[in-house]
Amino acid sequence: MQKTLTVVSKDEKTGWVESFRFTHTSHSFTRSAQRGIDSSKLSIALLYGQPFYKQGLIYYVLGENNIPSKLMNNKESLRNTIVIVDGKSDTIITCYRAKDPFKHIKRKSSILK
Q1: Residue 98 contacts residue 83 (beta carbons within 8 Å)
Q2: In this structure, what are the phi and psi dihedrals at residue 99, rounded to the nearest 5 degrees?
């Protein structure tokens, strides 16, 4: 896995292609490897996950309903993935899976303590 991650998004209607570049912290790099969340799974979570803005961070939550039909064969390994990004620097802080990710994120306080 690389320390930087480039995510490419293509709008199906307009054909526009946009590229986003993210950088791993050493923590996120280690944790993603330990948790079996490779760069392709991170890219999918960042592209299709629902963003929540809390604590000055962006939480991308890839729930079961966010997974596109073309990726349903990998549903079990993708669902309930959370990627936390610092929106100011596009740095991936960490990533993990949770049983009920939407409830987990909504219960977080609005400020980081």
Answers
A1: no
A2: -60, -45
Domain spans in the chain, listed from the N-terminal domain onward: 22-106
Q: How far apart are CA 13 and CA 50, in angstroms?
A: 20
Do the Cβ atoms of 2 and 43 come closer than 8 Å?
Answer: no
For residues 86-101, average pLDDT:
92
- Computed on alpha carbons and rounded to an integer, the radius of gyration of the chain in Å comes to 14
What is the rounded CA–CA span in Å between residue 59 and residue 92?
Answer: 10
Model pLDDT for residues 36-75, shown as the tens digit of each residue: 999 999 999 999 999 999 988 999 999 999 998 889 888 8
Name the pTM for this structure. 0.85
